[in-house]
Write a structure and sequence with these properties.
Distance between the termini: 26 Å
Helix content: over 70%
Number of helices: 3
Shape: globular
Radius of gyration: 12 Å
Structural class: mainly alpha
Strand content: under 5%
Largest sheet: none
Length: 66
């Protein structure tokens, strides 16, 4: 349960702030660091960009199809 909760929170932050509101990757990383999320999950700029552009957008498209 702990890991899935953590993943959902990370994706929710990237989706809500990064995609919907256009917040940049560096600001998202600063937020992860401020709430100490970076100590539990990888939080490099490349990883967040990859998540933002590939996984989350793909999930939105798939959800729209369903």
């Amino acid at each position: 349960m702990g890991y899935s909760w953590l993943v959902r929170r990370g994706i929710a932050v990237v989706y809500h702030f990064g995609i919907k509101h256009g917040v940049g990757t560096e600001s998202l990383l600063a937020f992860f660091k401020a709430i100490h999320l970076d100590t539990h999950m990888g939080s490099s700029a490349t990883a967040v960009r990859r998540l933002k552009h590939h996984r989350v957008e793909a999930a939105i498209v798939e959800y729209g199809r369903a």
